[in-house]
Amino acid sequence: MRLRIILPLVFGCTAFAANETHWVATWGASPAPQLADDAGMRAAKLMFNNKTIREIVHVSIGSDTVRVRLSNAYGTKPLEVGAAHVALRESGSGIVTGSDRALTFHGNGGVSIPANALVLSDPVKLNVPAGSELAISIFVPKETAGAGIHYSAQQTAYIGSGDLTRAVSIADPATVTSWVFLTGVDVLAPQTASTVVAFGDSITDGARSTVDANRRWPDVLSGRLLAARGAKPLGVLDAGIGGNRILHDASANVRFGVNALARFDRDVLAQPGVKYVIVLEGINDLGHAGGSAPISESVTAADLIAGLSQMIERAHEKGIKIFGATLTPFEGTASPGYFTPEKEQMRKAINEWIRTGKAFDGVIDFDKAVRDPEHPDRMKAVYDGGDHLHPGDAGYKAMGEAIDLALFK
Please, where are the H alpha helices in 101-177? Predict the structure, then answer.
């Protein structure tokens, strides 16, 4: 006798599928290599010994279950974490009463992270509203150099002596505007939820935006998506690194990070729940050569188009849609040698390929959004952050509002 499929079992499977969840990145930061011991006062190497660092992050989508990614990226020795906590942030270094949660790692309160590795915390129950801020406190009991560092966070972190991970606030703290040992926050979300990664350089990182105000263009995009997406939430992860280039590692300043092709897997493809990526990279490849980088690192428009094409292929290999963003104007920038008429012609050629080459799954025209109609090689004055290269808050707002949300269907 043949067995028959029993209909109620089919209904049971369907009900289970409807309730399935997965991990989605709601916040992230891309790390860069450690500074040398003799980095100097202008860029002092970050060291911690019996210190708690409380770091503030602005999440995109919310959940009632979160986990945290701690990183020893570019570290040369194991990182000993004595304790870590997560809470809703109230203001300054203060947390919302009753929201503090201890983080564990395979059930343990502390964890040793091998050199150049990362660890995920165990999931913790915490009602995290979309668009809210978290305070993540990390206690480092032994002397160690900062690792997993995102140097230009545009966000204040608070440092105190001893294990203050449970403290309501940190009294008289030292402060830095970097994220250290912390590279991600994930939320447990419905299968309909996903994430877009904003991948780029200082213009994606929010250079010259107001500190502690979350006015980078990815923040503007996140706010728009929260208002528009409804039952299909889309997180935004900012993977910008100031000074980053597509084809070369940082020369004189390790804070600019390794080349974009080298970090693309870690900062984009390996992130949980990624469905889309926006790429805004290349202006530093043009500008740095002959200034902060050797003239031997000069590139052509064809070189950068080839690099962008590599990212397109690698994203498509993982089923991720990738959108190309045009390079913004930079004539008049204060950095010596950064702008030349020849470099401007290359910028125009790259932008023309982005707009018309049909290699990307969609185009975001940031150049058009912020350029001066009367002088299109320059940024419009109201959008200029002051150095004729980076936008200010108004410029980032214009960029975030120039993105067609229909791209994220």
Answer: none
Give how far Cα 213 sits from Cα of 57, 149, 156, 208, 220, Å.
Answer: 11, 20, 10, 11, 11
For the chain, give the mean pLDDT: 93
Each residue's pLDDT tens digit, 109-129: 999 999 999 999 999 999 999
Q: Residues near 81 by Cβ (< 8 Å), separated by ≥ 6?
A: 70, 105, 110, 111, 112, 113, 138, 139, 140, 181
Which of 64, 39, 45 lies closest to 132 in space, CA to CA? 64
pLDDT at position 255 over 50: yes
Amino acid, res. 53? I
Q: Which residues contact 174 (CB under 8 A, 6 or more apart)?
A: 158, 159, 160
Paired with 187 in beta bridges are 24, 66
Give the tokens for residue 145.
């150099």
Whether the CB-CB separation of 276 and 64 falls below 8 Å is answered with no
The dihedral sign for the CA sequence 167, 171, 174, 179? positive
Query: How far is Cα 356 from Cα 359, in angstroms, rounded to an integer?
Result: 8
What is the pLDDT at residue 40?
52
Residue 256 sits at the vertex; the CA angle it makes with 401 and 302, to the nearest 5 degrees, is: 75
> Of 274, 244, 275, nearest to 150 (Cα)?
244
Cα–Cα dist 392/387, whole Å: 10
Task: Extract the tokens encoding 20.
Answer: 């399935």
For 161, the token pair is: 């002596």
CA 136 to mean position of chain CA atoms: 16
